[in-house]
Amino acid sequence: MTQGAERYRRNWHGVSNLQMSTHSYSPHSGNMNSIADQIPMPRLRFVFLTLFLVTCLSLVLPEATARSTTVRARPSQQPVRIVIARLTHSHVGGILGRAQKGDVQVVGIYETDNTVVERYRARFNFDRKLVGTDLGKMLDEAKPEAVVAFGSIVEHLGVVEAAAPRHINVMVEKPLAFSVEHADKIDALAKRYGIKVLTNYETTWYPSGYAAFQIVHGDNSVGAIRKIVVHDGHQGPKEIGIPPEFLSWLTDPVQNGAGALIDFGCYGANLSTWLMKGASPLTVTAVTQHLKRDPVYARVDDEATIVLTYSDAQAIVQASWNWPTNRKDLEIYGTTGYVFTPDGKSIRARLAEQPTEQAIVPKEVPSQYVDAFAYLAAVIRGTEKVADTDRSSLANNLTVVRILDAARRSARTGKTVSLR
Predict the structure, then answer these.
(1) What kind and span of H or E run contains 257?
(2) How many CB atoms lie within 10 A of CB 378?
(3) Would the pTM of this model clear 0.70, i.e. be above it?
């Protein structure tokens, strides 16, 4: 079980795994009186004086220790210094418009398109002095602890190449990359310079996801997983009105790798890898289509289905820019029951030996799992460890990229791709 899921499990059940063993001891046992009788009076006085001094010190030291601990803890309470790399992914509004919680501080914004800068400045009213057009220079001068990338997918490698030698952590918007070549280079840089590279998915912060994982893996209430079905997407990037700079690269196969297959197929690949506890699928089969007639979509797919096979399970990822509404939902079928997460805050389940389906309201997640930036701050401050099986981890997302790369090849060739 991942660390995040384990912490959620404790909150879910309201108990701690910690157990304390106590041993009773009676001061009247043994031969204390006979021992005292054998100690000469001067030495006995010395013993009692020593005990008195120890008792006095025990009353004073806790307060002094607490003061010392508070002083040492203050640096970790400072906001994590963040540079934003590009503003061409509209999800950047999540940090520019984020309420001031004291956990992160934007100390620089790298963006070369002045029109984009001014539009976001008018909306979020940030200081123009934060903006620069040289990422390397900005990292040297602002000295951030992390860079968050909000540009095209193909630009992720360049951000890591700039940050890693400066020992600056990186978080990118999903997916990590669309080619194995880029993913492997990012992995090598992260390992060489000892930095964290995290990938942010909106669905990672859904309380329903943590609760579903607990039901499946913690409580074992649906038996072994046999099928996972993930639906992700919306009516289309142009149809929902994304900014022109975002639409431009999202529909460019050079900058985004593909269309809906990359944009929303990555969610299903990420969730399937998480639910399968990091296992890579044995095979990947993908079918893509061009259903839209608008020429803006001419170079990329707008409809994709990816089938992943495991030794004892199957995952079906349905990624689309043609849904009638926005959707990010998940179905998990086991040998004895199922769990549906129709949205971020609700669950429908029919568990082992239950005659009917039940509605479940998941509890709120701990504060470090509320959003990507709270999580990033916790990771950098050392209060949250990233397990390889976590959805944001580099290990999980290297598998995601291998799935997406195989899916692109499968769709192009019409053949199943083996990952064995």
Answers:
(1) none
(2) 19
(3) yes
Residues 245 and 336 in one domain: yes
Neighbour-count burial of 185, counting CB atoms closer than 10 A to its CB (0-12 exposed, 13-18 middle, 19+ buried) = middle
d(CA 408, CA 288): 9
Q: What is the mean pLDDT of residues 243-268?
A: 98
Nearest to 275 by CA among 344, 337, 204, 325: 204
pLDDT at 106 over 90: yes
Cβ neighbours of residue 186 closer than 8 Å, sequence gap 6 or more: 156, 157, 160, 176, 177, 197, 394
Compute CA distances 417 → 92, 134, 278, 402, whole Å. Answer: 35, 41, 19, 11
Residues pairing with 417 in the sheet: 284
**Mean pLDDT score of the chain:** 87
Predicted pLDDT of residue 45: 53
Distance CA 374, CA 323 (A): 31
pLDDT of residue 347: 98
Cα pseudo-dihedral 35, 40, 42, 44, rounded to 10 = 10
What does the pLDDT average to over 216-233? 97
Q: Is the separation of the CB atoms in 198 and 292 below 8 Å?
A: no
CB 39 within 8 A of CB 32: no
What's the domain count of the chain? 2
Q: What is the CATH number of the domain that holds 212?
A: 3.30.360.10
